[in-house]
Amino acid sequence: MPNMNYIIVYFILGVLLFWNIGKSLLEGFYGTVVILTSVGYGDLVPLVHRDKFLMCVLISIGFFFVADCVEDMFDYIHYKVVMWLRQKEWYSNVCPINLLLAVIGISLLLGSGTVAIRFIEGMSWTDAFYLTVASVTTVGFGDKHFQSTGGQCFAIFWLLLSTSVAKRLSKWLNAQINHMRFSNMDTRSQRRE
Which SUPFAM superfamilies does this entry report, sorted A to Z (predicted)? Predict the structure, then answer.
């Protein structure tokens, strides 16, 4: 299991930093998650040089030390699921199960995010889907972001989960595609010989 102490200390540091620049506890958690996931909506910004410098320190700590801990947590959960499936003899080949998990996972992330944002933030379906995709892919244009208290509470948990899971699912999907592509290339080269 990854070391949760880094994540806890990072969140305490982030909340304190945001509180120091006049933000609420909720905005502190929300802002820390937005930084950690590198979404960067642009809705919570430091205005003075000292606060900008402190924010750069927080961003750097998150980028270089903490972000991998969140991904490691997901890897750990994935490992436990695979071990459980193997124990039940429901798991036989890594690639097909990872492909299935990737497709289902991405669909669930985009679907649940869109529905939740639609109803929590009151956005149109198009804007909710747009914010979901921009968030999950960590693009975060900034024109749409979580504005309500309920939306920011949802974002604290959903952004951490969705960006980490999406990153891992993307790796699985690409690995499966490459496996299939190279398997086909091997088969074709064997036929030529």
Answer: Voltage-gated potassium channels (SSF81324)
Structural domain boundaries, residue 59: 4-192
Tokens of 65: 């030390």
| CB atoms inside a 10 Å sphere around CB 21 | 19
Cβ(78)–Cβ(156) below 8 Å: no
What is residue 22's DSSP assignment? T
Residues 83-135: pLDDT tens digits? 777 776 655 555 566 667 777 878 888 999 999 999 999 999 999 999 998 88
CATH number, domain of 166, equals 1.10.287.70
Q: How far is CA 79 from CA 69, 99, 160, in A?
A: 15, 15, 19
**Per-residue pLDDT at 119:** 96
Domain count for the chain: 1
